[in-house]
Structures are given as C-alpha cells and as structure tokens.
Amino acid sequence: MAMIEAVEISKIYSMGDISVNALERVSLTIEKGEFVAIMGPSGSGKSTFMNILGCLDKPTSGRYLLEDIDVSHLKRDELADIRKKKIGFVFQGFNLLPRTSAIENVELPMLYDGLSLKDRRQKAMVALKLVGLEGREHHHPNQLSGGQQQRVAIARALVNTAPVILADEPTGNLDTKTSVEIMEFLTKLNKESGITIILITHEHDIAAYSRRIIRFLDGRIISDEPRKRP
Amino acid sequence: MINIPSTFRISFRALRVNKMRSALTMLGIVIGVAAVIAMLSVGTGASTQISEQISSMGSNLIMVLPGATTAGGVRMGMGSQPTLTLGDAEAIQKESSAVADVAPVISEVAQVVYGNQNWSTGVVGTTPSMINVRDWHLSSGRPFTDQDVKNAIKVCLLGQTVVDNLFGDVNPVGQIIRIKKIPFTVAGVLAVKGQSPNGQDQDDTIFVPVTTAQKRLFGTTFPGMVRILMVKAKSTENLPAAEKQITELLKQRHHIGPKQEDDFTVRNLTQFMQAAEQSTRVMTLLLGSIASVSLIVGGIGIMNIMLVSVTERTREIGIRMAVGAKTWDIRLQFIIEALTLSLIGGAVGIAAGVSSSKAVAMLAGWPTIVSPFSILIAFGFSGLVGIFFGFYPAYKASLLNPIDALRYE
Fold this sequence. Notes:
Chain A is an alpha/beta fold.
C-alpha cells in the first residue's frame, strides 16, 4: 500500500479571463517511510502540489489517494479531518500561535479531537520531550529561539501520530547550525519512527538529507531520482 | 467536536490581550442591559403602585351619582340635584342580578372631638355593605349592623388617620367621641388603606349608619336622599351587565321616558382605573423597548470588534484550520468569544441596572421595582445579542481559505 498516490493531478487557477496551469497531470507515488525532497524554482508548482498533498487544497482534476483513501473530492470538513489525523505540517515561518505557550501550541490539534485537558497535556508533554524542549513548555514563542520554535512546530506535527509530515522550507528562517539540528532530527524521526517525510526546499544541502529528490518545473515533474551519494 | 470549556478559556484569553478594546465593547452591552433593567423597574414600580391603589378602591366598583339639574336653562352640574334615595339602593340590591352589594353614601365634613383633641374629617353615612363594597377590613372592634342602621344608633367606625389624630396610643374601641357635639360610640377601627388613585387619604374618614347621619348629623333639606350609591358588581365580567341593569332600573324608578335626559349618572371606576393601569403597562413596554435599542447598538459594537478581530487573526485561523479545525470549530470559537463579551457585559449591566434603579428611587422618589423577570430578560437578551452579532464574524472566519489564511501577513 502506497502512502501517497497522485494520479494525473492538474491544478488550474483562473483569474478572470486568464487561467494558469499550476500543475499539469502530475503523477507520483510515495511509499510509507520514504524521505522525499521536492525541489524547484519559485512558480514551478511545488507549493501548489504540497498544498494538495496536505489536503489544504483540492486538485482541479486527477486523483489523490492518501493511504488508499481518495481525498480529491472530499468536502471541506472531511479534509480537515484527514489533516487532523494523517498529516503534520512544519512551515518555514513556524506558524505557532502568538501569546500562547509551547505546550498549548502542541495541544492544538488535539483540541479539535475533543480530548480532555488532562489527556492533551500529557500527550503534548511527551511530544515536547521528544523534541528536547522539556522545561520550556510554558514559554511563549517570542521567548524561544527560531530552532526551538521549529521544534515546537514539529512536536505539534507529531502529537496526533500522523503518518506523514509535510515540511515546507522548514529551515528557511534558520541559521546553518540550527538547520543541521532540525534536519538531523527529522532524519532520526524518519528512521526510528518510520514517519513519511516530504520536504520542500531550495537548498541542495538540505535536500541532501532526503533519500529521493523530485524536481518541479512549470507545473511538471522533470526529474525523480534517488539521491546520489556525493 | 471542539472542547467547549477549553474554547471559553481560549476566548477569555483572546479578550484579555486587548483589555481596553474588550472593556469598551462590553460597555455597550453594560449600558444596554442596565438601561433595560432600570427602565423596566421604573415602569413596573409605577404600574404596581397604580394597581395597589385600584385594589384599595375596591374591586368591580360602580358609582351612581345624582344627575344635573337645569334651573331656568342654567345647567348646574353633576350631583346638584339630589335624586338618589335609600329606596334606590335597596331596589338595586334586590333586583339587579349582576350586583353583589350596594352601599349608599351621604357625607359631610364635620368636627370630631375626643377628650381634649379635635379633628376635622369626612363623616360618611352608609350601611354595613360599605365594608364589603370597598373590600375594606377592620383592624379592631366590630362593624355596625343592619340593626344599628334600622334604629339609627349612634355608633361609628374610625379610619386610622382619625384614630392617630384623636387617640394617640389609647385604644379607641368602646370610647365615646363627639361628632358635631353628638356623642357616638366607637365600634371599630378600619384597616389602613392608604392613598386613593387621585391622591386622597382614604383613612381620614368616619363611617356612621346612614340613618343616624340623616336624622342626627346632617339635617338635610331632602330627607332620605343620598349623595352617591357605591355598587359592587359580582365580577369584572358582570360590570357592563350591572351598569345596564342599574341604568334601566333607575330609569324605571325615576319615571324617565325614552326622550328624557337621565337624572343620574352611572360610572364604572374599575374600567377607568384599568385603563390607567393599561397605559402604565404600555409605558413600561415603551421604556423597555427604547432601552433595548441601546442593547442592540451594543451588539453592533460587538460585531464590529469581532470583524476586526477576525481580520487580525486570519493567520491564527489558518493555523487552526491546518491542524484540523472544522467549519463549526472556528465558528464556535468566535461565537463563544462574542458570547463571553456580551455575558460579562450583561452581568456587569445587571449590577449597574439594579443600582441605578435604586438611585432613581432614592433621588427622584419614584417607586422602582426590579423584578427577577426583568433581570432574566435582560441577561438572556444580552446573550442572544452576543450570539446574533457574533455569528456573522464567526461565519466569515469559518469560510476563509486555509492556504490564504496561512499566508496572510
């Protein structure tokens, strides 16, 4: 069973008379436990593809199977449910709630699952320990460094035990040293927990952590190959 | 489904972030709720006072007054011609089926003396029916009887004001007072009734048997005539029937032809008073609705702030959607936030309304009554306002596209 199976996915944005083909019949299969990097210049369609993989957006045509469930025609709330259970997001800008403690940020996905405060606290604490932020659970995002904020975001992505993590330029706002830490942590997660990780990046040395690199250009996949050992 | 207590906690915190803004938004609701409660308390106070006065007059009361005379083309006004008699009273009592009781009244102001005290008061000659017709009670002693009336016995019942002025602390029952120098035995004391609807002290009165009054006190030019007949109908529904029966009976007794003018007037006091009561009720409603306009204005304030808040927190909404918040999760969050605003405002408004109605009572001397019902109405209404005006911003928030919301700067 493939984790992700995209079949001839197209996305057309129409603005008035002009329509833009952001994706043209993209097909792709990602197996469970893979660590994939998606590369490509701005406007190549990689972000659009990522949004569709993340169930934040729907394809104009084509089929998208996530763990064998066809999610391409699900309704808004059904997609929200899929995001809650199956996908963890890690963004470039961290996207943590301001003025909200680290632990409450991690609790957020469980809030919409109707879990009690006690259960949420307990699970969030486990996730924070895993990312090495024990003792910082009551810090607000503005009291944490960029790397620490990204760890909180990763803890949030992990807390619902989602099988897939989508990381959109996770190191884009971080310095080199912290970037290495975050990437090593993601690699460890992939290896030890078997979580499928899909990474979007511009940078070759970040893509180098993955085991498969997919390149996008003008809405199409131009190359899809295992990472060559340097 | 989202966890509701947690949502209340979240919205409470969100409101605390902008303390000043939240407080000002609540102020609109505070003023609205306070105004509704204060206005209703003024209205309720006024109508309660009026209905108390009406019931003090006696319920289902009809007054029969003598008619106007015409002397050489000059009309002399109501009551100028003594046309009603004790016989009329008895006839109404006997023959009108809708009538419960009839009390004739002749009255005059007279000087009364007890010991070294004296007082000037209205002396009313009547029958024992008076007690029943006016729904009056005795606070001590006994009423006078039909036998007393028949034999023109010199007994009297005193109103509380008379007792206070003549006796002080002495028990008046069994004492002798002098009315126009004629000695009367005090049989009983009437219970306190307070003011009449037109502001008279109803307790400043003395009741004596009507025959005694006619024969001993007021040497009238028209013996056997009475000033007024007070009639009590059997029930409120019987009032129009009683009026009609009395009019027909008196026409017949006074030999008034179809084309002649009546020499008496039948007036239904209760209906008049009920109209007054009705009008205060309308006033209460009017005051309440004017006040609720301010509550609605407060609600618009909430909507305004919530719309601003939704725009400011677009990114937060995007994050929540990305981690799995559904349409109603987002809606509920913002509705609960609006509800929190309006309910806190409502609670403060109740305190402000109750104290301002107390202040009105103290400063203006109006009888204000804060009913639990009005508090419930105002609080419930403020909650509804919160939900109603919170819904549109919440709806708007829930329709945001998660991708756009996440990218919002």
